Structures are given as structure tokens and as C-alpha cells.
Amino acid sequence: MSLSKRIRRFFFITPARTIFTIYLITILVGGFLLWLPISQNLGVELSFIDALFISLSQISSTGLSPVSQRDTFNTLGGIISIFILEIGAVGIMMLVASYWVIIGKKISLKERNLIASEQNQFTVKGIIRLITNAMIAVGVIQILYIIIMTIYIYTVQPFQASFGEALFQSVYLAAAGFANAGFDFLPGNQSFMVFNGYYLPQILTMIIIFIGGVGFWPLAEVVLFIKNKLHKKPYKMSFISKMLIVSHFVLWMLSALIYFVMEYEHSMKGNPPLDILMNVLFMTNNARSAGFYNTPVTNWAEATRLFFSMLMFIGAAPNSSGGGIRMTTFFLLTSGLISFGRHRKQVFFAGKAIKDQAVKKAYMVFALAIILVMLSTMFISIVEPNRWTIMEIGFEVASAFGTVGLSLGLIPYIGVYSKLIIMLNMFVGRIGILTAIAMLENKKETTNVVTYVEMDMLVG
Q1: pLDDT confidence of residue 454
Q2: DSSP percent split of the chain into helix, strand, coil, nearest 5
Q3: pLDDT of residue 11
Q4: Which of 88, 240, 418, 454 could form a disulfide with 61 if both were Cys (CB 3.0 to 4.6 A apart)?
């Protein structure tokens, strides 16, 4: 076998390795383009590792960055970032498949398997219809956001902006918002604090973040629902889609209530009621997937930082642009614990029994994610001794793994080794623990032909 065939076989032998390879190439290309002087403001010196960090952060829809986007990149760099953010939001295979659909290419079973693997689908059945309807939803949502935000920024002027600047900011925020990435090109380098007192931009961004975090499956079904309604045909949304939408909203409201109780007498003290409401809703909406902020994160109490670290660790829906262990994993874990406590043979969620294999996967994802986050926190504390507390480092690692982007300001000051650890967490958080594990597969299935005698073991 020739060397080129061996290389192709190694990197493309399974769907997981193919996805890994495609994302890796895209990250390298994106990093190289951002590293080029033509993408940067005059006088800026950006190291290649920092450009690669930003490219990975944008592909993974995170938002962590060692430099200010507005101070570092010019308009061309901003446009390149928009393209990278869109790729991270939708997924490379989804974009490629959309192009295939447009040109009428027949999509093979292998290609359908790749798309299903990237989007965490159970089956390839209906995958093309899913892509078509999801992309319609993505396009319509972002266009509406861009139109409204451009008009608002240009007419209300929350910051000094020409029509071209207003349009650019709106396009950038549409890409970053739907991607659930905390990147922005806004003046002041203080994220959405520039919109404090201006509620419409924050409300619109909360909506687009929520939609991006719910996932493509529910979006596709909403489009199908509307299409059928227009043709006066009945359509019933699937249990999974309903569950993702409802659970996403419930977890948002529950975390908002907890955050309000924890910070009402602290960072929110003395603020007007409407500002407090916007702060609570906006920050908890961003906590599990996006990384915008309308209040300084550094003002939070230690307990609040820990709570938000937990929310970031949970993440968004499994086939969305968010990261973490994923929302469904969290619900399977809690349902499994309840069922175990009640001595049930099956795990129930929302009145339905869940397959044992799915529950086992949830516990495996949780265990491996805990190990990754804890080891990453420990290693960074070793290579960055006596600089930050474990809580501060853990917050950044959780933000990276959850592909959120909220930060206490550590990223610009960490060393190369720490950046590599953060980058690993962002990448694994984006592709998912299961896909990362599946990269170890080589298509050679091993079957246990011998059954061994089982023994009991002390637990707990």
C-alpha cells in the first residue's frame, strides 16, 4: 500500500476520523488566513498559535480569544471570521451537503453516514430533508436578525455607526449569535455592555442564541410544521424536538431564577428592575452555549462562578452549535439516578422508557468529560503556578469545554501549553465526547466469542 493511501486510510477510515480531519484542515486554513497581515490592523503582531486559537474558537463556536477582535483584525479579517463562524455554526458536512442538494448531486450512503455522524442523528433516514429544512430556517432567521439589527443600530445609534458599519456589525452578530459563539466586533471590547439600556438588540440576540442552541432537528421540524400548515395538512412534531425545545426553555428559566437569587444582593444591588431582568435573562441564556455578556463576569461571587461553570459544562442540545456534555445527557443522568433510587429496571424520561445503551452512553460521556475538565484544570494550574485560583482556571476550562466563551480574562495571559489544553477542550466540546472516542476505531470489530464468569464488586 502506498504512503498516500495509508495516510488517507488513517485519517478517513471512519466517519469520526473523517469529521476530525475535515475540521482540523478547516481550523488550520482559518488560522493561516487570520494570521496573514492582510487580515490585521496596521502595526498588529499576531502569533500563529494565537491565530490558530482564534480559528479553533470560532469553528467550535466558543468565543474565547487571547486578543481583542476589533483591535486586531481589519474588515477583511472580520469577514473571514464571519465565514469561520458560519462553518462552526452549521457544521462543515451540513454546508457541503447543502451545496450538494442545491446542485442536485446524488448523495451516497457513505456521505449520508458522515452527515448523520456529525449531526448526532440515529439514522440516515430523512437526513436530506432535515438538511434542506434546517438550512431554510438558518437562512431566514439570520436574514431577519440582520435586517432588524441594521435598521436599529443605524437609526437609534447605541454607538457611533455608519450604515455600512451597522450592517457589518449585524452580520457579524448574526453569525456569532446563531453559532452561540461569544465573538463580537463591537466598540469598547465589552461585548453587549455597549447595549446596556438598549433592550431590543439584547432581546433579538437572546432569541437567535436560543434557536441556535436548540439544534437543527427542531428547526427542521418547525419548518415542516409551517409548510404543512400553509398547505392545510396535519403535522405532528416528534417527541425529541418537543423535548429539546421545552427542556431548553425550562433549564433557561430555572437557571435564571437561581442566578437572580444568588446575585440580587451582590452584583445586581441598586440596579433598576428592568435592567436586572435583562441581566438575568441575557446571562443565563448565554451561559450554556454562547459567550456574550451584558454585565462584568468578574463582579460575580465565587458561588455564582461555580454555578455558571456547571451550566457551561452541561452545554446545549446534542445537534446544535453548542458544546458541553449536552443537555440530553444531563437529563438522562438525572433520570437514571431517579430510576435507580426507585429501584426501577428501566430509566424513564417524560413518561417514556429510554434504551439502556443510551443511558450507558450518557454516564460514559459524563465521566470522561469530568476527567477531561479536571485534568485540564490541574495541568494548567501546574504550568501556570500561583497565578490564578483553581476556581478561576476551572471557569475558563468549563467555558472552553462547553464552547461558551465567558471568561474571567485569563486567556490573553496564559502560556502556549495552557492554550493547547484550552484548545483541546474547545475541540472535544465541539465534536462531542462520543465522536472523540470514535476516532480510536479502525473499523475492525472485535466480538467477544468467550463469555467469562461474572463476579460482584463493592461499590460506593
Answers
A1: 74
A2: 65, 0, 30
A3: 74
A4: 88
pLDDT in tens, 289-325: 888 999 999 999 999 999 999 999 998 877 777 788 9
**What pLDDT score was predicted for residue 445?**
47
| Residues of the chain scoring pLDDT < 70 | 1, 92-127, 350, 441-451, 456-460
Secondary structure letter of residue 122 according to DSSP: S
Q: Are 179 and 86 in contact (CB under 8 A)?
A: yes
Could you say which DSSP state residue 212 is in? H
Q: d(Cα 280, Cα 283) in Å, to the nearest integer?
A: 6
Q: How many other β-carbons are positioned within 10 Å of the β-carbon of residue 343?
A: 6
In which region does residue 215 sit, left (phi positive, over 0), alpha (psi from -120 to 50) or beta (all else)? left
Which amino acid makes up residue 182?
G
Q: Which three cell numbers stand for residue 415?
A: 502560556
Using alpha carbons only, what angle is made at residue 390 by residues 388 and 391, rounded to the nearest 5 degrees? 100
User: SS3 of 234, please?
Assistant: coil
pLDDT of amino acid 453:
76
Beta carbons of 316 and 289 less than 8 angstroms apart: yes
Phi, then psi, of 354 in degrees rounded to 5: -100, 140
Instruction: Tell me the Ramachandran region of residue 157: left when phi exceeds 0, alpha when psi lies from -120 to 50, beta otherwise.
Output: left
What type of residue sits at position 246?
Answer: V
H-helix or E-strand containing 63?
Answer: none
DSSP for 266-294 reads: TTTTT--HHHHHHHHHHHHHHHTS----S
* DSSP letters for 308-373: HHHHHHH-S-TTSS--SS-HHHHHHHHHHHHHHHTT-SSEEETTEEEPHHHHHHHHHHHHHHHHHH
Closest CA to 39 of 23, 55, 57, 63: 55
Residue 194 is predicted with a pLDDT of 94
- For 22, other C-beta atoms within 10 Å of its C-beta total 18
Global pTM reads 0.88
Name the phi and psi angles at 73, rounded to 5. Answer: -105, 145
pLDDT score recorded for residue 388: 92
- DSSP letter at 40? B
User: In this structure, how many other beta carbons lie within 10 angstroms of the beta carbon of residue 436?
Assistant: 19
pLDDT (0 to 100) of residue 98: 61
Within a 13 Å sphere around the CA of 381, how many CA atoms are in the beta-carbon half? 15
- DSSP characters for 385-406? TTTS-HHHHHHHHHHHHTT---
Burial 133-156 (b: 16+ CB within 10 A, else e): bbbbbbeebbeebbeebbebbbee
Q: Look at residue 230 in the predicted model and tell me its pLDDT.
A: 84
What is the greatest pairwise CA distance in the chain? Answer: 75
